[in-house]
Amino acid sequence: MASPDLVTPWPSSTGYSFSGSLDIRLEEANPADTLPALEVPTSSISYNCTIPKPPPLPCKTFTRTKYANTFLECCSVPKETVDTWDKLFNEGHGADVYVITEDESYVPAHSSVLGAASPVLGNLLQQTRIKNGMRYIKIPGVPYDAVRLFIRFLYSSCYEKEEMKKFVLHLLVLSHSYMVPALKRVCIYFLEQDWLTKENIVDVLQLARNCDAPRLSLHCVRRVVKDFKAISSTEGWKVMRRVNPALEQELLESVVEADSKKEERLKKMEERKVYLQLNEAMEALLHICRDGCRTIGPRDKVLKGSQVACGFPACKGLETLVRHFSSCKTRVPGGCVHCKRMWQLLELHSRMCNEPDTCKVPLCRHFKEKMQQQCKKDETKWKLLVSKVVAARNRAAAFSGQRSGFI
């Protein structure tokens, strides 16, 4: 239990009576006895047909995921227009530019189209001399098929998905180098969706950094952190370690930071769970001492035995602890760990109780008086524990209210 370890002596059982205020009956509980289920009330109000119908509910807003899945399908350009521009590229009628590729092949194009689609290509064409009525520009370091797909996109924004998947990295470089943001968005979209693998993610990360794609870079870093063990054993990681050790160090620091945050998050979750259990124990203790539960409760209450099912989660365990506490002969700190736990629960209740004069929990008023004699260090520990338990209770109540609001 996450209650503070106090060094002050606990009151012994000789001077203060605990079991004297409770009536404990040893009876067998019948698991078949449960409360009847609540029925959902049905409304008897009938709507008059003269009453106007309410306005329709507002349409659902598009989430980021839905938008990402449909943005490529949104197009106001007629299909015939797209086909016309695609046909113009394929046939090359009236072309006045040859785009030379790495293997000395060429792609015919129109300078007006290239200049309008890419400012970089427009400037390059202005600096190119005309030979025999044609201009010649070269795009080195990229396969012919990737260059052709790139030029086709400048005409009609059309592409084949299989070709795009094959040359997406080349097209990302081309879209950045020649300032074609529409193609860049398409490449980033497909890479973020399902084209990243543990073999290529390191290369994509470095490319995203060089091509000014921060969202893709962040996406890659998160994937590396998530699957670090598998990615760090790939060939791409080994090459990156040799040529870019600074990036490797950055990724290692990200992995360490993510692990630290995960451990801290798990630690906080465990702490909240303990404080919530303490709050449930406080509720069960008050329930037993005030109302009674099955076979244990105050002497002025008529216990119903096993006929009533208890709705307090901690009641069963606390009932066992109370039975032990009422019959234990040791009941001193250091002598019985179960009794020490019970003393701590009683003191925690007294510090959370606002009605010590009328409270039916044993020793509640005694612990209120004892607070004045405790040292400052112990008092600080208890105040911190009480604040944590109260915060856990409020958080659970808020969460329960939100769930009921959604239902």
Query: Helix- and strand-based class?
Result: mainly alpha
- The H-and-E topology, N to C, reads as EHHEEHHEHHHHHHHHHEHHHH
- Number of DSSP E strands: 5
Helix content: 55-70%
CATH class (first level) name of the domain at 266-297 and 312-401: Mainly Alpha
Strand order of the largest sheet: 3-2-4
Gross morphology is elongated
CATH superfamily of the domain at 266-297 and 312-401: TAZ domain
Walk me through what this model shows:
- By secondary structure, this protein is mostly helical.
- It has a domain of 122 residues: TAZ domain (CREB-binding Protein, Chain A, Up-down Bundle), CATH 1.20.1020.
- The chain has 17 helices and five strands.
- It has a three-stranded mixed β-sheet with strand order 3-2-4.
- Strand 2 and strand 3 form a beta hairpin.
- The longest helix is centred in the middle third of the chain and has 46 residues.
- The N terminus is likely disordered.
- This is Voltage dependent potassium channel.
- Keywords: Ion channel, Ion transport, Metal-binding, Transport, Ubl conjugation pathway, Zinc, Zinc-finger.
- It comes from Trema orientale (Charcoal tree).
Brief sketch in words of this structure:
This protein has 407 residues and is mainly α. The protein has helices spanning 64-70, 79-91, 111-117, 119-126, 144-156, 161-166, 168-177, 181-193, 201-210, 214-226, 228-231, 235-243, 245-290, 315-327, 337-352, 364-370, 376-406; strands at residues 22-24, 97-100, 106-109, 135-138, 296-298. The strands form two sheets. The chain has a three-stranded mixed sheet.
